């Protein structure tokens, strides 16, 4: 009653043993593919973690530099500006990690929140009545009066170019993990599991427990079993090329690190522009939002404090170097894995599975 290991000579197998062998080859094949995938998956997961850690370090550095701008140059609004600054960097982080948001909306929302503070604390520091309605009016007016000139637009244009490649790389790395996980759990067809039993376990039915498959026979069986997986070869090569392109984009002129560290300067330039155009802004705002209550005197001119850019600190340099090195190591490794899916059958037939150093091996029917 044997279905797979049929042979002319007496056998010590039963149908139940054949079923056990089929369960064994399915389990072994999954484990073998998992072992092959492990190093590749380990590299990708490791890079995702390293990328996120280095990115978060750069982001914290840029946020601290931006907060220090308000604390040193714009003290009257430093406390109230803390929340918009935090929201801006949270939005940037979420964008990189794939959230459904845009850099433009994050930057414009930040400047919408900033304008009421700049207007009431720096341009007209005598304002005492900053009601919710008046604050909301200032927020809405910001888009029409454009108090920050070209600086707000320049900031999101530069950030968008830099963060786009980082966002795409983050998504691409996650996709890589998904592909590898899917191939690990690809179901074996009935024909494949029968072929694997015939190759690995049918010799046992003849009492030949030490004999192993011939190399060519193993390759034929594995290629047949993994035809659907090896079809990923062209797409995998294209995927590696895309990763290479994205890492090069990140290291090119629109560098992520430079863009993040430049946020402080962009905000400073934007605030200075608004202060220098204070009288015209006040005239327009008064027409649209009305005149709020003010204390005597206006000290706006005393609050224009240009800030010199702080020199790059050791923390930033280390995070920058770390991210660059990680990118380089990772892409070099991934380039070596271009043929991963094309050569998967050869790799599974390597090692202890087949007989390489002997003239005697199993060809599926007999010992040759």
TrEMBL record:
Pfam family of the protein (one): Glypican
Keywords: Cell membrane, Glycoprotein, GPI-anchor, Heparan sulfate, Lipoprotein, Membrane, Proteoglycan, Signal
Record's GO cellular component terms: cell surface; extracellular region; plasma membrane; side of membrane
Domain of life of the organism encoding this protein: Eukaryota
Membrane is among the record's keywords: yes
Residue intervals passing through the bilayer: none
Membrane topology: Lipid-anchor; GPI-anchor
Function per UniProt: Cell surface proteoglycan.
Name of the protein: GPC5 protein
Provenance organism: Podilymbus podiceps (Pied-billed grebe)
Taxonomic lineage of the native organism: Eukaryota, Metazoa, Chordata, Craniata, Vertebrata
